[in-house]
Fold Alpha-catulin.
Amino acid sequence: SQITTLINHKDKPKRSDKTLQAIQRVGQAVNLAVGRFVTVGEAIANENHELKKEMSVACIEARRAGETIAQLTDVASLDHPESDSHITIFTDKTGVVKAARLLLSSVTKVLVLADRIVIKQIITSRNKVLATMEQLEKVSSFQEFVQIFSQFGNEMVEFAHLTGDRQNDLKDEKKKARMAASRAVLEKCTMMLLTASKTCLRHPDCESARINKDGVFHRMRLALEQVIEIVTDSRPTGENEMAPISIYSGIKEFKNKVEGLRENLYFLSKENLSTMLEVILEHTEDFTDSAYTSHEHREHILELSKQAKMELEQLVSVWMQAQNQKTKDLMEDLEVAILKTCQCMNELKREVHSAATSLAADLLKYHTDHMVLKALKITGVEGNLEAVAEYTCKLSEQKEQLVEMCRLLRHVSGTEPLEITCIHAEDTFQVTGPQIISAAETLALHPSSKIAKENLEVFCEAWESQLSDMSMLLREINDVFEGRRGEKRVYLSLPRPGKHNANLKALKPVKLDTEEQAKIAKLGLELHLLTSDVDSETEKWEDQENEIVQHGQGMSSMAYSMYLFTRGEGLLKTTQDLFHQAEIFATEGTKLASALHAFSDQVHDDDKPLLLLEAEKLISMCKQLQITAKASVQGKSATFTKVDACILKTRNVMTLLCQLLPLCCKLLRKNKAGNGCLKPAPPWREDRIRTGTNAHTPERRAETFGIKSLENHVTNMTFLESK
């Protein structure tokens, strides 16, 4: 931003002292920022000798460029006669451009090298986990197993935190969702590996116990490999990453093409449109061929598929005529054909959505009692092999139903991250079903074995947990379809607030009961409506990468997750989760206020005082919310009062945000229209400078580059069984 201001500076015959001082401050601010940045880069270089040379060269280039910019913007010599021959931005603007290019190039190199270091850390951590897993597979005594598993647990903690940081840094929502799925597999499989390995050690000659253990190790290796594929952005096996297109995304793309005919009659061929429709209708066969689709839904889908073909034929006919002669009547006929085709596709989308979600709702309701799992546990303890065989057949049937449900839901999920979640759920049912069967067979063969019984419990819990996750996924898919959630995707990769936070350790998390949810429902609904308003305002911005927009979208997403909490849904499960989310929301609001201040410094407009006033209000409200969220309370009544206060204050912040976004958008548009409401950016504020002075400390380095010491997290992991 500062460099852009310098490059875009216009030379004028007369320069005021204010202008000269502003230019000099900008140059100094750039140099100061580069100095802090380079200090961090040099510290990282010293810790990573294999990249030290490359990093040091990039840091030297950046420092040199920063110093050059500072020299060229040193306008103090202009007070002296021109004969001083002092070169400045006014006499050598080309020099500033060259220095700026060198600076941006070298800074990019430093960032890329730092990123390579992070990737290498994750790969190294993965390799340590794999090596220890190999030792665990070959272990033959309990004492040796306990010792190695303790080491394995610590290595998994380190890997979990490294990949968690990476997941939060990812910008691609598909990769975020895939990373979240892989990390979930690793966390659940760690406990499975513990009990499956112990069962195998206790019953070394049991084939079903060995099969059970091998399945866990295989699944963990696949998950570890997928994490590395995401981190390195590679597919080592050469397979195609693209999943089959879903009906929802196919219809969306098809409608965009059809509606595009209004603007351009020649941008695609009729064969192209026909092929797209054929692909969509082929996918509807997943529904019409499914044994679990009702007769009514099947008939409607077939009927709409036939109608879609007819509508497209009519559209193509009018379209071809319109290409030859653009008469008013033909263009009106084309508009009617476009509307009818799109309406037919909407009805088809609605029908497949209804078919998938009604099947899912029925299956999830039918399997909530977990009767088959309970029967397997009972018959296993009784040692009744025949009964176990009977119930394993029933579980296999249930697995096939649930796998089919996931496949159909994927077609109507509405967003790519939700599609990936459906695929992950399908894989989980496919793998966990046979593992439960092998664990049940082991227990039936050794009915008095406590460890075999515990092992079966662990796998059954994983199945029940996945069924519970499916209920939440179904609600999210319905929310997207009905427009209650739009394209918000943050929840798939949102870390579970408070899970590893040592400061929250002593607090007991609780859930809201039905009565409390009813009391807070109105406030939650208001919050929901405000998130929709904010989303609507952010969509009006041409530059979606604008810092103000980014913070606004982030706050809207967090507010939406708090609204879901008031309904007993979403990933915020307990009051402690909500309070932690409120703190993060307030922090994001403070960052937005900083961005608003930076923006207001560039504004020459009547609205500037109002913008500053609103920004100060935002800071005050966010501070109040943070104080409320961090306040310690005891007892159910006090906790609910705190929940109510957090939601209320979040609502107030969102109300203010609805006023701020259109105001900023208006100022930006004025600038683009040439009204000159923006002036050159001012120097960095003192608080930024103070913040940056500690950049050379290890803590600051870790915060900046995500290269963290993970030792302090080990004690907070809760998913490992103690020795």
